């Protein structure tokens, strides 16, 4: 995608992280974000998803944001009778936040830089093969099942490898901090290794033997 916008509206959604190549449904109901989606639909249909930090700036009462987020493109849009917007957003490319911009809008906007993540735009699996994931798939399946997550593994195996890794990273029962680490991983190979590292910390939980009383 050429001519990526330097200044983007950002949606600081708690408990949510989007990865490049993944699609997510969103129900938009807050007036300021209704405005944001309206403005975006009239222009390039692009908004930035970014995770708020748990620690806020008490002096300004502003919610601090993580530096790295993901630009998303609105691919489907529906206006409901209640006035809400139902949209589907597809992750395009990650960005580093450079500065927040005062646009006089109700929603927040940031100046961003994409240069560190241009590989997100390439159809490139970086020499990884699906067999490279099989070692972590067994542990992932165990963790997903233990936490009650339902995943269509056969469908994942039919996707491109980058989409599979990013979908697993987004859907995983990892903590938000761990998912943020995965989002900030430089490339797919590093992200795959980070998933394996995080899984190793869950290994006791996955494999512990339980006795029914």
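^ structure tokens above, recovered residues below v
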């Amino acid at each position: 995608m050429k001519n990526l916008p330097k200044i983007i509206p950002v949606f600081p959604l708690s408990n949510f992280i989007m990865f490049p190549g993944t699609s997510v449904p969103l129900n938009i109901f807050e007036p300021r974000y209704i405005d944001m989606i309206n403005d975006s639909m009239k222009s390039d249909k692009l908004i930035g998803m970014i995770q708020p930090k748990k620690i806020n700036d008490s002096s300004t009462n502003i919610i601090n944001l993580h530096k790295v987020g993901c630009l998303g493109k609105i691919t489907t849009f529906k206006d409901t009778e209640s006035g809400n917007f139902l949209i589907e957003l597809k992750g395009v490319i990650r960005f580093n936040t450079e500065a927040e911009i005062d646009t006089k809008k109700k929603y927040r906007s940031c100046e961003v830089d994409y240069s560190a993540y241009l590989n997100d735009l390439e159809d490139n699996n970086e020499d990884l093969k699906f067999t490279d994931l099989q070692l972590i798939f067994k542990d992932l399946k165990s963790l997903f099942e233990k936490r009650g997550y339902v995943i269509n593994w056969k469908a994942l195996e039919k996707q491109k490898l980058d989409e599979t890794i990013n979908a697993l990273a987004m859907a995983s029962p990892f903590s938000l901090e761990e998912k943020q680490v995965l989002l900030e991983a430089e490339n797919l190979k590093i992200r795959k290794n980070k998933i394996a590292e995080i899984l190793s910390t869950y290994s006791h939980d996955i494999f512990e033997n339980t006795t029914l009383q």
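The radius of gyration is 18 Å.
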